[in-house]
Structure formats: structure tokens, C-alpha cells
Design brief:
The chain contains 4 helices and 3 strands; from the N terminus they run E-H-H-H-E-E-H. The chain is mainly alpha-helical. The protein has one domain. A 3-stranded antiparallel sheet has the order 1-2-3, with no helix packed on it. Helix 1 packs antiparallel against helix 2. The protein starts with a strand and ends with a helix. Keywords: Membrane, Transmembrane, Transmembrane helix.
């Protein structure tokens, strides 16, 4: 049984599809040395793809969404100030000085940015391991395959 969240199942496909195609092309006649090296190289390539895909899905894209949200909040704060309704917190006086309002708005946005980034969920995982960290597993298996291929041929 495979357990995944989001696009976490891609870890399995990104590793198995190139591996099966590569081993299929090499075939059993090539020997264990060539098969081990081909499998190892394909796993290393898959590991690079897994790392970048996982980073984009679990780190880069959520941060971009947070930044987009904060930009819209900044525009909203600016609009409230121009309407004369900007308050840093309920019960505080309405900011009349643009510099004070800008400072308060920046402080609010920084606090919100830190709070949101601290709560970025890992949405794409397989067996509770984030997608990008499956690349480490792929690299370890690649080295084992290459070393096994070399040792089996000697």
C-alpha cells in the first residue's frame, strides 16, 4: 500500500518509469555491470528531478503564494489609508501621517509573513517523507546499484 499526499506519488513514477525504460533498453544480455551502472545513472538523474520538483512544490510555490497574498494585503492597506480608515489594530487611532501608516503596515506585513512561512505545510509527500527528500533515497540506491554492478562483474 502506497500512502501519499498531493503529488507525492510522483516520487514513485519519477524513479520507476525511467528505470524500467533504461533497464528495458539495456536488457539482461548486457550483464550486471552495465545494468547496475545504467540503473545508478538513471536513479541519479531521477534524484535531481525529484529534488527540484519537490523544492518547487513544497517550498518555492507556497512562498510565492504567500508573497502574492502579502502584496494584495499591502494594496489593501494602502487603499484603506487613502480612504482614511487604516488602523494598525482595532481600537487604535486612525493613522493620519503617511510615514506612520507605512511603518505600521510594513510591521503588520512582516509579522504576517513570518507567521505564514512558519506554517507552510508539506503538501506533497509519500509515506510522510516530503517529495524532495526522496531524492536522497534515490541517490543512495543509485550508489548501491553502481557498486553492486562493479562488484558483481569482478
Amino acid at each position: 500500500m502506497v500512502i501519499w499526499r498531493g503529488w507525492g506519488i510522483l516520487a514513485l513514477f519519477i524513479v520507476l518509469i525511467p528505470l524500467s525504460i533504461g533497464i528495458g533498453f539495456v536488457g539482461p544480455a548486457a550483464g550486471f555491470l552495465v545494468g547496475g551502472i545504467v540503473a545508478g545513472v538513471l536513479l541519479l538523474i531521477a534524484a535531481v528531478g525529484l529534488w527540484f520538483l519537490g523544492q518547487w512544490l513544497n517550498v518555492t510555490r507556497p512562498r510565492q503564494k504567500i508573497d502574492e497574498h502579502l502584496q494584495s494585503q499591502a494594496l489593501r492597506y494602502e487603499q484603506l489609508f487613502h480612504e482614511g480608515r487604516f488602523q494598525a489594530a482595532p481600537g487604535m487611532a486612525v493613522a493620519t501621517d503617511p510615514r506612520i501608516a507605512k511603518t505600521q503596515a510594513d510591521a503588520m506585513l512582516d509579522a504576517e509573513r513570518q507567521a505564514l512561512r512558519a506554517r507552510i505545510p508539506i503538501n506533497h509527500s509519500m509515506f510522510w517523507i516530503p517529495l524532495q527528500w526522496w531524492s536522497v533515497v534515490a541517490v543512495l540506491v543509485a550508489f548501491i546499484a553502481i557498486i553492486a554492478g562493479i562488484l558483481a562483474s569482478s
